[in-house]
Amino acid sequence: MNTIPILNIAQFDKEESLDNFYSNDLKKHLQKNAEIFHKPHKHDFFLCVLFLKGSGRHEIDFNLYKIEPGSVFFLMPGQTHYWKFDDDPEGYIFFHSQEFYELFFLNRKPQQFPFYYTFSNPPYLTVTPSKRSVLEAYFREIYEEYQRAPMYHIQKIASLVNLVYIELSRLYVTEEVSNRALSPTYLQTLAALEKLIAASYKVEKSAKFYANKLGFTTKHLNRITKTTLNKTTTELITERLILEAKRLIVHSENPLSHIAEELGYEDYAYFSRVFKQKTNTTPLTFKKDYRLLKQG
Fold first, then answer.
1. Are residues 146 and 31 part of one domain?
2. Are residues 161 and 223 both part of a single domain?
3. What is the count of structural domains for the chain?
4. Which of 245, 231, 6, 246 is nearest to 121 (CA)?
5. DSSP SS3 for 292
6. Over the stretch 167-181, which tens digit does the pLDDT of each residue have?
7. Which end of the chain has the smaller Cβ count within 10 Å, N or C?
8. Is residue 1 included in any domain, yes or no?
9. Are 191 and 118 in contact (CB under 8 A)?
């Protein structure tokens, strides 16, 4: 039913790439993949890109972000996105799998970094010129190591990626959030909750179901989600459902009533009311408006 293509690392520079890592000069990457980047698609890996020049827009899960020099974007597996450029961009890009990071940093995951905590966190950052030069040097060195493949290049790439993430995390996290010192246990629970919601939201829409599955009371699970994201469990469930609804509405040719059924709503009128309550528009109007936006 969902027609959004899902890309994997092996599709990029197949002859030269590592099984679970890829890096390139951004201009070269876009030239090689000119048939892909301007169309909505998903990845099954983590993606990080630094823009040094260029302008345009980047749509990620139906949210539009401005592209400008200093823009950094972080995408997690499963997010839908596409690029539209007004001026030719320059910069660097790298992808990696979950396994790539965990292989070199035992008992650590990419999700330890704030931009990968949760899908609810903004997937972008704008870096000032003074900080940009530091990041540019790291990104360039990752690209050069990947291209030359000298001795121990995989180990060095992993270390450089970790340094990039550390530098970006310091820029990404505001002082207010930093002072909150989020509990690692809370973050682990949040990651488990999002994974469970992704697997079950079409049939289970009750906060109590997810709390029971995770071994918490509904009240305690809400305390965790409010502390980490300032949202309730029910809000997270509904956000995931609405996101999938948007994807199916614009990327499939199925009737809206069938999409409602796919998402667990036998009554289309009720589904339409839920959708409008959360988006301020009906499914049909959303579909028409999105197509006009894509044409613009």
1. yes
2. no
3. 2
4. 231
5. helix
6. 999 999 864 454 445
7. C
8. no
9. yes
